[in-house]
Amino acid sequence: MSGTKGTLWLAWRQQRVLILTGAAVLLAVTAWVVVMRMNMTDFISSHHIDTAGCKGWDGGCESEAVLKLLDDNNGPLRALGSLSTALPVIIGIFWGAPLLGRELESGTWKLALTQGVGIGRWFTTRFALATACTVTGSAVLAALVAWWWSPVSNMLNGLYWHDGYIFNATGPAAVACALFGLAAGTAAGLLIRRTLPAMAAVLGAVVAVRFALNTFRSDWISPQLWVSQGDAPRREIGSGWSTGEFGFLDAAGRKYAIPDACAWGEGLPDLKTCMAQKGFTGRYRTVFPSSDFWTFQWIETGIFLGLAAALLAVTCLVLKRRPLP
Asked: pLDDT tens digits, residue range 18-54?
């Protein structure tokens, strides 16, 4: 048996339980999603719901049928989105951390090296197989979330593109985060050399990075400024992501936030009078339109891939320079 085939066979033998278990779970999830989405589209068709015309909180779409459609699917969609979001942690803990950590703990790495295979080829083959499975599994799961969600995307009280259940669970960033989880687990297993502590380390690392990105996501790019002249109603947000910043503008374009700028209501001047008294010429709000989904996705994809590449480089450097026990 050649060296490449031998290391690939050994990598398959040592990882086949994880691969087959993951494949079985993915097949079961796929079957569930197919059935649920078919039920969803049948309901939409039988009740003649115009999902394309009901994005955001646009009037005329708050029918009982639409509300039932969303109520029946929001919970299961959140569950599927949570699974996809948690996948990088699962991969890092149960695949990445033991990939080298368990080998170093048990000493089974010596078996491969007695077959005339270098440490570099041994690791490369194992990590490549894990990477291929990680990319395939995370991409399929992310696609399932997006496929099920698409007919009811950005509708009323449903799930929007900027919700964590959707944003973190779909797109290239979901796949890149899974690779980051694998790389983080692998590096932790090598550096700590004990499986359980490495699992804890990768859990903390992936959760910390995800939390940081969720916290600072709106700082990556500037939102759009939507302006309405006079006392005309502000433009509806629709499928956009509001920053929560809105108020009034004067003739010089200076912003004045609500409620300090102009309060109106019972016992107070009406909106038009209040604006005239204070010299306001229009109203504004700042919004990230739905098209920014891809901008945010590619930014975070680059971050995850950069972190994964850095961790992989550290792993390779340590394997090259530090002798195994």
From this structure: 899 999 999 999 999 999 999 999 999 999 988 887 8
- The region that residue 294 occupies, defined by phi over 0 for left and psi between -120 and 50 for alpha, beta otherwise, is alpha
Question: How many residues are listed for the chain in this entry?
Answer: 325
Give the angle subtended at the CA of 74 by the CAs of 72 and 77, to the nearest 5°: 110
Of 63, 68, 12, nearest to 40 by C-alpha is 68
The two most distant CA atoms of the chain are separated, in Å, by 90
Q: Is 131 exposed, middle or buried (0-12, 13-18, 19+ CB in 10 A)?
A: middle
- Interval 281-322: pLDDT, tens: 888 889 999 999 999 999 999 999 999 999 999 999 988 875
User: Which residues contact residue 98 at a Cβ distance below 8 angstroms, ignoring those fewer than 6 apart?
Assistant: 185, 189, 195, 198
Which amino acid would we find at residue 47?
A: H
Residue 91 CA to residue 87 CA, distance in Å, equals: 6
Q: HSE of 24 in the Cβ direction (CA atoms, 13 Å)?
A: 6
What are the residues whose beta carbons fall under 8 Å from the beta carbon of 214, sequence distance 6 or more? 164, 168
Residue 325 has pLDDT above 70, yes or no: no
Distance, C-alpha 49 to centroid of its chain: 29
Looking up tokens 């090598």 gives 190
Strands 255-257 and 224-229: unpaired
Assign 147 to helix, strand or coil.
helix
pTM: 0.88
Please count the other Cβ atoms lying within 10 Å of the Cβ belonging to residue 120.
11
Structure tokens at 163: 């919700």
The four Cα atoms 62, 67, 73, 74 give a dihedral, to 10 degrees, of 80
Query: Which of 46-60, 89-103, 233-247: highest mean pLDDT?
Result: 89-103
Instruction: State the Cα torsion 61-62-67-70 to the nearest 10°.
Output: 40
